[in-house]
Amino acid sequence: MFRLVYATPGGSAPQAAKEVGLSLQRVRQILCETRHHIRRALAEETP
Question: What is the chain's pLDDT, residue by residue, as a tens digit (47 residues)?
C-alpha cells in the first residue's frame, strides 16, 4: 500500500483503494499505521 501511494508517480490513496479493492478509510488507516512503524524504527536508530 505504501508503495502504491508514495512510490508510484501521481499515486494517491483513492487510486490505491480502487486498485486493491479496499475502502478509502482502510487504505488511509494502513498508511497511518505504516508511517507510525517507520517513525518508530527511525527513532530507535537515532542515538
Answer: 999 999 999 999 999 999 999 999 999 999 999 999 999 999 988 76
DSSP state of 7: I
- Orientation angle between helical segments 24-45 and 13-20, nearest 10 degrees: 110
Grid cell of 12 as nine digits: 494517491
Which cell goes with 37?
512503524
Q: What one-character DSSP code corresponds to residue 10?
A: T
Residue 4 per-residue DSSP state: I
Claim: this prediction has a pTM higher than 0.70: yes
